[in-house]
Design goal:
The protein has about 170 residues and is α/β, with parallel strands linked by helices. It has a domain at about 30-90 and about 130-170: Carbonic anhydrase (Beta-carbonic Anhydrase, Chain A, 3-Layer(aba) Sandwich). It contains 6 helices and 5 strands; from the N terminus they run H-E-H-E-H-E-H-H-H-E-E. Helix 2 links the parallel strand 1 and strand 2 (about 55-60). The chain is globular, with a radius of gyration of 18 Å. This is Carbonic anhydrase. It is an enzyme of class 4 (lyase). InterPro entries: Carbonic_anhydrase, Carbonic_anhydrase_sf. Belongs to the beta-class carbonic anhydrase family.
């Protein structure tokens, strides 16, 4: 028996594929940029940021973390030719609501000590941030300071307001 979410995937994909005409697009993004944004379900990067299919790489993770995304950004820039990075965090982000100790405590309670031992995979750092604008600035500085991203790559930082759908420049 197929679960309802899987049924939805198959039926919606069938409808999408029936009129799909973009299979000719090149592998590298046509507009040579990457967007790093949050995985928050309230954000539709294509619609909110004006990204057409094939235009840009869109990298999503919890909190739009530059550290989490570095591997993908290096591939995007070094192997696939992107020349600009837009880092976009958002208002109402869950990463503003806890500290590492809180997350570890929840894991320990829900999954036990053995599971928390596996946190070493990312050094137990969930990468929360207490201040939205400062979080944007810190991540932009992290990318600009990385030896893995060429100095000539343009990097900017933004905040998307989930309440209004608007973006504002931070750095």
């Amino acid at each position: 028996m197929v679960a309802p979410i899987q049924e939805n995937l198959v039926s919606k994909n069938k409808a999408y594929a029936s009129s799909f005409t973009e299979g000719h697009l090149a592998l590298p993004p046509a507009k040579k940029y990457a967007v790093l944004t949050c995985m928050d379900a309230r954000i539709d990067p294509a619609a909110a940021y004006g990204i057409n299919l094939g235009d840009a790489h869109v990298i999503r993770n919890a909190g739009a973390s530059a550290k989490d995304a570095l591997r993908s950004l290096v591939i995007s820039e070094q192997l696939l030719g992107t020349e600009e990075i837009l880092l976009i965090k958002h208002t109402g982000c869950g990463m503003l609501t806890f500290k590492n100790e809180d997350a570890v405590g929840i894991l320990r309670k829900n999954l036990g000590e053995e599971a928390t031992g596996q946190l070493e995979a990312f050094k137990g750092d969930f990468q929360p941030f207490p201040d939205l604008d400062q979080g944007v600035k810190d991540d932009v500085e992290y990318l600009k300071g990385s030896k893995l991203i060429r100095e000539k790559i343009k990097i900017s930082g933004w905040v998307y307001e989930v309440e209004t759908g608007k973006v504002r420049s931070v750095v």
